[in-house]
Design brief:
This protein is of the alpha/beta class. It is built from twelve helices and eight strands. Strands 2-1-3-4-5 form a five-stranded parallel β-sheet, with helices on both faces. α1 packs across α3.
């Protein structure tokens, strides 16, 4: 089905049909509005479907945003999955689509980003090399989610405030021997330090500066420390993955959460 067929039935030019179908219609007179509605009705009856490639070429944009990510499983796990879903809903409400673009060794992402498949890109947490290259080239708008960049807009959570609130909650329950745990497997990311700062601020304000304890080591060392008589009574995990490591370690040595720690 072509625009020419619709134009023939509506008795107008193909260019008029094209303008109406892409929403570029400025007529306010009753006759003009009626003709636009007739064109839309005919296109629906004839089963017209716009060619997105042709539309992208004519408009110079695809109405598609690329979401770059490095670890495929992250996209399907919380909280990254929730971020991706929210991002998709926001785009769709504005007439945009989302395209997932994995960043791998084959560099296929470059073909999509630089080849005009997307109008802009969002970097999801850990794609520094790819994102830095796009920022340096200046060939596509960039927004970072869950990370910071000197030359790019970013959306982040209040990591310091979140850790502060969590620590204050534990202090309110009567705990004083509270540990901040971020294993040595966690990559260096601004949020590691920000959450540590929130934990330490809450401890200092409560008068427990001398009890501040930060664990940055592997699971084996964590087990050893949990077995000591002066083990912490509460632990602030850097993220949900760290919380799972703590729960597994506690369970493996017979500690009950939250009764024992």
């Amino acid at each position: 089905m072509t625009i020419e067929r619709i134009a023939e039935q509506a008795g107008v030019s193909p260019s008029t049909v094209a303008r109406v179908l892409r929403g570029d219609f400025k007529g306010a007179q009753r006759r003009s509005v009626a003709k636009a509605l007739e064109i839309q009705r005919i296109s629906e009856e004839l089963g017209y479907r716009p060619n997105w490639r042709a539309r992208a070429l004519s408009k110079g944009q695809t109405n598609t945003i690329g979401l770059l990510y490095s670890y495929p499983m992250w996209i399907f796990e919380d909280p990254m999955n929730e971020i991706a879903v929210g991002f998709t809903e926001a785009l769709q409400s504005r007439g945009y689509d989302l395209r997932l673009i994995p960043v791998g060794e084959d560099q296929h992402w470059e073909e999509l980003v630089y080849g005009g498949a997307v109008d802009g890109v969002v970097g999801m947490v850990n794609t520094p090399e790819a994102i830095n290259r796009i920022i340096a080239d200046g060939r596509a708008p960039v927004v970072l989610v869950g990370d910071k960049g000197a030359d790019a807009s970013h959306v982040i959570t209040n990591d310091e405030g979140g850790a502060y609130t969590a620590t204050r909650h534990l202090l309110g329950l009567g705990h004083t021997r509270i540990v901040y745990f971020a294993s040595d497997l966690i990559r260096e990311h601004y949020s590691v330090g920000a959450r540590r700062e929130g934990y330490e601020r809450a401890m200092r304000e409560a008068g427990h500066a001398a009890l501040i304890d930060v664990w940055r080591f592997d699971a084996e060392e964590m087990l050893r420390r949990l077995l000591t008589a002066d083990r912490p009574t509460a632990i602030i995990g850097y993220c949900h993955v760290e919380a799972q490591r703590v729960l597994h370690a506690a369970w493996s040595i017979g500690l009950n959460v939250p009764a024992d720690v």
